[in-house]
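Annex B. Sample input.
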Amino acid sequence: MIDGTAVDTRPDTRPDTRPTKIMYVAEATAHGGRDGFVTSQDGQIELRVAMPPALGGDGNGTNPEQLFAAGYSACFHNALVLVGRREGFDLTGSAVAAKVGIGPNKQRGYGLAVALSVSLPVVDQDIAAKLVDAAHEVCPYSNATRGNIEVTILLG
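Annex B, continued. Sample output.
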């Protein structure tokens, strides 16, 4: 404690998952927050954003949680296919679904929780579990969320 401020002197033992080289940068802009619209710099995304009914909105648009779920599921599935290919497995017919929950946290803000449901119909369960664990280490979304939000992975 220095001048009444606590200092954590423990070494950070987490692996460094920051990129060593930026290969692509996505750009998007929000207009009006949760009741407006979002666009991407390249014009591929032009979406109305609205609060879902569960949060008091009309639900007449997508919301950040849906966009996060779409991004995480696509990214995790790609990592899974990559890991499977490296290990010599064809993951044809596989799928990843994401559920993203939002709610108040203890700091008077809001937090997220994620549940990923992974389907690997042509792979033995033990192998599937190893591939999912490896994909969770490779996926940039998993690396970004690790230690920040609860991520549950269900293998079915």
